[in-house]
Task: structure prediction
Amino acid sequence: MGQDVDRRTFSRRDRQRYRAKVQRCLDALAIMLRDHPFAHDEPMTGLEVELNLVGHDLAPSLAGADVLDAIGSSQFQSELGRWNLELNLPPRPLPGDEWGHLERHLVEELAVARAKAVDCGAQLAVIGILPTLERRHLVVDALSPDQRYATLNEQMLSARGEPIRLDIAGDDPSGKHGVAPEHLQADFDSIAPEAACTSMQLHLQVHPDSFAGYWNAAQCLAGVQLAVGANSPFLLGSRLWAETRVPLFEQSCDVRTPELRNQGVRPRVWFGERWITSILDLFSENGRYFPALMPVTEDSDPMAELEAGQVPGLDELRLHNGTIWRWNRPVYDVADGVPHVRVENRVLPAGPTVVDMVANALFFYGLLRTLVEAERPLWSMMSFEAAEENFTTAARHGLDGPLYWPGTGWIRPDELVLRKLLPQAADGLARWGVESDVTDRFLSIVEQRCVTRRTGASWQLDTVAALEDGGADRPTALHGMLTRYLEWSAANEPVHTWPVP
Result:
């Protein structure tokens, strides 16, 4: 979806040509996976962070374009909402102190963005869902003016044929906050609710021969990632899931009518349905199951490019892949004339702090390496349905929802991390060549988050509950919570150390 799209209407023949071109790209990719050399260099990592802008009243600020101009860096880009920005850091390897340097680089970049935002009358908020959003903010006029977003909005609403419906029932299984579950239902005439979801996206370049193992391992870890990294408990004033971003994203991008859902038609925000043996499995599913949203075809012929000894861009395949939002997405790309593939992990929310996000990333990368190189793959010992259930349970309940883990059975996520996964993550990072002091610094943050049972989501919930107990109504409590959140987030103190009023 980062590709430029300069059209707003498409004919039947456009869609027919596009389907054929996607298939031709698939055929070319199949040949490349069999015969063509892919990048063999040290695996590279990448990081993207989606950001929010708020005004002095802590409501969303539509100053995104002005802030981008003020920053003047190609690393910052527009996002779907006019109150959103996206920061894309350059790829870097894992070994040594690279991710210690990345923490410092990210702190510096966000400090610049914060200063430029202030110059434009706004503040930067690094959080999964902006808790001060109201229904009046989620309108078509709040979408960024980029043509690709206007086209996406029109095509998704046209495919759905009716308003976007949000229907999210909250839950508090622990009874910790002592109040009844809340329920949000609302209809919208644009895809603006999708812009309420701000995430951190982790990339890992791998060789095609090992891609399936890394993708399967990432699917196994999705529930654990969410449980220890949840940071989105509020939406439109309602207390909902620990990571409400998950159902919000699924529903705001759902182009199916209720009848199509009842028929079992697959959603475009998708966990998947099976373990894979090749990256081609995922791209083939994309072409087989999902109609085009933006059927833009290029003049190039990937098969002809291959025959001429060139590396094809597979533009239609990549554009189609960008309109199917898997939580772990396959990526094909070309850098310096050499093709490579990546796993793009889209599970985690943005925030609460830079140090928390880096800790989440290294915990993930370390566990990936250990699981992929295990004598018996974890995914051979659990069903795909169990991995998906873990993902949904963690999104609903955070650290309070038990997960299934092979060899252990049902276990609370914090206990699983402390007893089994932290040592495995440390071992994996050692295999990547990460310096021990870097590993100790960041994995200790995940450890203390589990020891204190304090995630971004639990801190938000506890802070709002404390302010409400003190007499504040919900809007006032959310405002007070966000005021404190912005202060602590900018200070880069890990969330497990944040005080509750």
Observations:
- The two ends are 42 Å apart (CA to CA).
- The first strand starts at residue 44 and ends at 54.
